[in-house]
């Protein structure tokens, strides 16, 4: 099929950036969206033009590296699918497609479709873990955890840290991302000793990074490739409030 | 050159304990004076960085991804083995050890494998304590499942995302040390060379992938945790960024490369759909529990599967291996699929695929049961192929998945370059000629959490510490070499992209050094690889400059290393005149076509030593002795 792509080109953080149209012939319906971009880049390189920079790695929906907004939707039109798993049979000959990077103050553009998501790492560093040194763990079965609890904790822990939730939110809020880690550890007994300090520290770091506030639009849940439910935001809010009221100065 | 494996004496069950006592220690107050440079942040790299920092060492950790959480360990699906015997089914450290040695077709080092089985139990404890949400029974205890090559249930799992959950556990431990100021994390930073001072690994030269700046790092030891080289085939289940650059460049500085021809081809992947394809996707081996594998009996049968009557189908695994059938081991299933496709009986585009059919299972168990067991996999398959596997049989084909070979290491996980340690898939260690399912995660974490943190201290305590500075001549020289290579890549200004060369190399290696190998094919590859490499260095096109974010340049550098590495891999396959595990030489087979191992002549680790560009590498052998597991022929008939 023949496609017209409108792709965001931006040389670096200080460049204003613009949409640039490209016409691509002979796109196979079997290729993935990123393979279609590969094809464009092969053409550009052969012509000596600068290829479009975009991030990807595993290309099977789990590493969370790919980060493109396709026709206004993070990861494109398919539900519960990362851009790397979106396939071109979704499109038809003659279609026009608009491709942009995640847009959020806390995710500055590095180049073209590549953004800097190190803010997510800093939020995790603020407290997204259980403080246990290697070698000091008791036997794994010494602490029984109900199947339902373990399953729910997995649902939260399945977050791939891609940032689609932020890109989808009109406030660029990172609440779904933060609540997934807070929620996973709040559900498990291992997470209890640091529960209060964790939620306070992670939310504080989130605010410091310049993410917006949550206004309950649920766009994040709709865009999340792992379908993490907004319920975790609710429980994080409760946790935060309790911790802020009761934590010792 | 002699290889000293430094395996301690005594009975196998006591070796590790004895060794730990004999290892020299570093005073707790002195540990902070030692700086460790860890390259890679997957299971091995993240667990090592966190554990070393907890001990008090000063750690710098580097990864090319934008976050340490995205290392390719994240994509592992199935699970992690541990000899916990929670199922009371007779498992033990010795049984896990035995299964792993046998599964590796007797080409691994016994003492290393035994230690791996010993520490496997600690790994599960550690991960649970971190909050890794493993699957559980209703009573709250950990659930297990079975995997290939074992008759006990010892695999721990977290749905189909065990690698993700284990990696995020290690990422948490790493983040805790970053927060504490004990680890400095350097994402989007690619290691381009290791710096040797007085013969010891004392530093790195890296490229900041955002600014393009080359940087020098000095330390007291270097740890490579940079994964495998499966992308030498271009198409593999590896992430597109996986590469051989770190281990290859270390090899060129003196680290021996061991058993590079041991590459695992996984039998159940989604077939190639066309030229555009950039990677292959694994479909979990568990599907073979209920799916039946077949091809048409007739050559070139183009009818849709539903129109091929039962009598005209060849369920070839059930026919050839009646006792293991569709659950035959990976290497055997992969070769059988290749055989029927070579006969012209393959299905789908290009005839490179076989059917994995759930029709009988759906009829027997009902669609609901199948959906419960494999729903997410069916969904993934449909997303990629656009075909509904409940209605039409899946098409699968083998693909490069894991590499058993890697840099040679001794019992302390140190390479032939003093101070250069290698952990996880990047070393050759524990899997011999074939890795069992759910053992890669185990090995990565064993090395990082429980082995390296002890052994690296011994290295520090055994050598007088001498300060080095990045201003030393060795750093300037290494940086100049890296810069020269980069300038050369940018200066060619030919016509072909790095990816086009990578594809061509991958196809060549797949055809002649893939699932099945013979002398003529390997010799052909040995002639064609240098020719392709020459073309690469004369007709490559790299856009942009070195002083910017430049993915085209990144890729070119990695392809350049694959071009050199591929030749060594083929040479190793040519040298190994036997069939063992994943290495299948058509000249060395039983009358029935099964692999014929040659213990008399090839019971050794083939470690290759770099002798200079353009010179053939020197083969150094580490003989393997089996004192606790008896050498025997594997049979699955």
Write a structural description.
The complex is a heterodimer of chains A (249) and B (637). With 249 residues, chain A is α+β, with helices and mostly antiparallel strands. Helices cover 35% and strands 12% of the residues of chain A. Chain A has helices spanning 33-46, 118-125, 147-157, 164-168, 175-187, 195-208, 219-223, 231-246; strands spanning 3-9, 18-24, 68-70, 73-74, 96-101, 109-111, 114-115. Chain A has a 5-stranded mixed sheet. A two-stranded antiparallel sheet of chain A has the order 6-7. In chain A, helix 6 crosses helix 8 (231-246). The termini of chain A are far apart. Chain B is an alpha+beta fold. In chain B, helix 4 (93-103) packs across helix 5. Chain B is globular, with a radius of gyration of 24 Å. The two termini of chain B are 42 Å apart. The chains are: A alpha+beta (249), B alpha+beta (637). At the A-B interface, helix 1, helix 2 and helix 3 of A face helix 3, helix 5, helix 6, helix 11 and helix 12 of B.
Strand content of chain A: 5-15%
Taking all residues together, what is the mean pLDDT of chain A? 97
**Percent in strands of chain B:** 5-15%
Terminal Cα separation of chain B, in Å?
A: 42 Å
Question: How large is the radius of gyration of chain A?
Answer: 20 Å
Largest sheet of chain A: 5 strands, mixed
Helix-and-strand structural type of chain A: alpha+beta
Query: How many beta-strand runs of chain B?
Result: 19
Share in helix of chain A: 25-40%
Shape of chain A: elongated
Strands side by side in the biggest sheet of chain B: 5-2-1-9-17
In short:
The complex is a heterodimer of chains A (249) and B (637). Chain A is of the alpha+beta class.
Indicate the topology.
The complex is a heterodimer of chains A (249) and B (637).
Chain A (H helix, E strand, L loop, with lengths): L2 E7 L8 E7 L8 H14 L21 E3 L2 E2 L21 E6 L7 E3 L2 E2 L2 H8 L21 H11 L6 H5 L6 H13 L7 H14 L10 H5 L7 H16 L3
Parallel strand pairs in A: 1-5
Antiparallel strand pairs in A: 1-2, 3-4, 3-5, 6-7
Helix pairs in contact in A: 2-6, 3-5, 5-6, 5-8, 6-8
Chain B lengths: L11 H11 L5 H4 L3 E5 L3 H13 L2 E5 L17 E2 L11 H11 L6 H20 L25 E2 L5 H18 L3 E4 L2 E9 L2 E9 L5 E5 L2 E4 L20 H8 L4 E2 L4 E7 L22 E5 L16 E2 L1 H5 L9 H13 L11 E4 L1 H7 L1 H19 L8 E10 L2 E2 L12 E3 L17 H23 L10 H19 L6 H16 L5 H21 L11 H25 L23 H4 L1 E6 L8 E6 L14
Parallel strand pairs in B: 1-2, 1-9, 2-5, 9-17
Antiparallel strand pairs in B: 3-4, 6-7, 7-8, 10-16, 10-18, 11-15, 12-13, 12-14, 14-15, 18-19
Helix pairs in contact in B: 1-5, 3-6, 3-12, 4-5, 5-12, 10-11, 14-15, 14-16, 15-16
């Amino acid at each position: 099929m023949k496609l017209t792509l409108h792709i965001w080109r931006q040389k670096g953080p200080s460049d204003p950036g613009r949409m640039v149209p490209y016409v691509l012939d002979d796109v196979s319906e079997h290729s993935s969206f990123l393979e279609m971009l590969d094809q464009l880049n092969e053409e550009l390189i052969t012509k000596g033009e600068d290829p479009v920079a975009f991030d990807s790695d595993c290309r099977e929906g789990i590493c969370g590296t790919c980060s493109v907004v396709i026709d206004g939707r993070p990861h494109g039109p398919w539900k519960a699918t990362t851009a790397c798993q979106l396939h071109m049979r979704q499109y038809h000959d003659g279609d026009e497609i608009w491709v942009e990077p995640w847009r959020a103050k806390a995710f500055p553009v590095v180049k073209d479709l590549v953004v800097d998501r190190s803010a997510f790492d800093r939020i995790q560093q603020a407290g997204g873990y259980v403080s246990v040194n290697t070698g000091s763990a008791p036997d794994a079965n010494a602490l029984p955890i109900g199947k339902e609890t373990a399953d729910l904790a997995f649902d939260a822990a399945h977050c791939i840290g891609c940032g689609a939730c932020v890109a989808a939110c009109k406030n660029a809020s990172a609440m779904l991302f933060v609540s997934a880690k807070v929620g996973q550890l709040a559900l498990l007994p291992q997470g209890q000793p640091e529960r209060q300090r964790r939620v306070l520290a992670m939310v504080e770091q989130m605010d410091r990074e310049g993410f917006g506030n949550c206004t309950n639009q649920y766009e994040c849940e709709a865009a999340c490739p792992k379908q993490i439910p907004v319920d975790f935001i609710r429980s994080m809010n409760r946790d935060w409030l309790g911790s802020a009221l009761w934590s010792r100065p | 050159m002699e290889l000293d494996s430094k395996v301690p004496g005594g009975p196998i069950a006591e070796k590790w304990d004895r060794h730990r006592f004999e290892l020299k220690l570093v005073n707790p107050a002195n540990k902070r004076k030692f700086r460790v440079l860890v390259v890679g942040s997957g299971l091995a790299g993240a667990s090592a960085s966190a554990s070393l920092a907890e001990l008090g060492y000063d750690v710098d950790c580097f990864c090319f991804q934008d976050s340490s959480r995205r290392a390719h360990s994240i994509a592992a699906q199935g699970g992690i083995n541990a000899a916990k015997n929670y199922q009371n089914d007779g498992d033990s450290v010795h049984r896990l050890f035995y299964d792993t040695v046998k599964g590796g077709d007797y080409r691994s080092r016994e003492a290393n494998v035994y230690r791996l089985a010993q520490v496997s139990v600690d790994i599960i404890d550690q991960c649970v304590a971190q909050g890794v949400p493993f699957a559980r029974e209703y009573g709250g205890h950990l659930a297990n499942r079975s995997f290939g090559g074992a008759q006990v249930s010892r695999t721990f799992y977290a749905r189909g995302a065990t690698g993700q959950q284990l990696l995020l556990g290690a990422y948490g431990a790493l983040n805790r040390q970053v927060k504490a100021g004990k680890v400095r994390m350097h994402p989007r930073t690619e290691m381009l060379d290791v710096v040797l001072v007085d013969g010891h690994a004392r530093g790195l030269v890296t490229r900041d992938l955002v600014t393009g700046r080359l940087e020098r790092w000095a330390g007291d030891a270097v740890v490579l945790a940079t994964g495998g080289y499966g992308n030498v085939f271009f198409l593999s289940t590896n992430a597109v960024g996986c590469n051989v650059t770190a281990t290859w460049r270390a090899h060129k500085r003196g680290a021996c490369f061991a058993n590079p021809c041991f590459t695992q081809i996984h039998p159940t992947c989604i077939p190639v759909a066309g030229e555009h394809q950039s990677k292959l996707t694994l479909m979990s081996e568990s599907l073979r529990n209920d799916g039946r594998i077949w091809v048409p009996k007739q050559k070139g049968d183009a009818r849709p599967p539903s129109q091929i009557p039962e009598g005209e189908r060849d369920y070839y695994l059930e026919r050839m291996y009646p006792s293991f059938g569709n659950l035959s081991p990976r290497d055997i299933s992969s070769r059988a699929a290749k055989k029927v496709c070579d006969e012209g009986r393959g299905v789908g585009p290009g005839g490179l695929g076989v059917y994995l059919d759930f029709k009988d299972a759906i009829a027997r168990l009902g669609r609901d049961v199948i959906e419960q067991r494999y729903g997410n996999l069916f969904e993934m398959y449909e997303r990629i192929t656009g075909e509904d596997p409940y209605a039409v049989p899946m098409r699968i084909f083998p693909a490069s998945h894991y590499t058993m070979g890697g840099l040679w290491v001794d019992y302390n996980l140190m390479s032939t370059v003093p101070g250069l340690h290698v952990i996880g898939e990047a070393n050759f260690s524990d899997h011999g000629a074939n890795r069992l399912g759910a053992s890669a995660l185990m090995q990565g974490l064993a090395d990082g959490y429980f082995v390296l943190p002890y052994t690296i201290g011994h290295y520090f305590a055994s050598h007088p510490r001498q300060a080095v500075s990045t201003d030393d001549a060795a750093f300037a020289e290494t940086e100049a070499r890296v810069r020269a290579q980069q300038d050369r890549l940018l200066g060619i200004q030919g016509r072909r992209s790095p990816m086009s060369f990578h594809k061509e190399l991958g196809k060549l290696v797949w055809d002649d050094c893939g699932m099945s190998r013979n002398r003529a094919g390997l010799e052909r590859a040995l002639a064609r690889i240098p020719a392709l490499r020459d073309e690469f260095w004369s007709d490559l096109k790299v856009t942009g400059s070195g002083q910017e974010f430049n993915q085209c340049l990144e890729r070119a550098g990695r392809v350049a290393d694959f071009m050199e590495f591929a030749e060594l891999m083929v040479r190793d396959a040519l040298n190994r005149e036997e069939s063992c595990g994943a290495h299948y030489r058509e000249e060395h087979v039983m009358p029935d076509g099964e692999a014929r191992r040659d213990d008399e002549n090839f019971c050794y680790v083939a470690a290759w030593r770099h002798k200079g560009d353009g010179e053939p590498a020197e083969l150094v052998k580490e003989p393997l002795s089996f004192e606790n597991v008896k050498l025997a022929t594997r049979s699955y008939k």
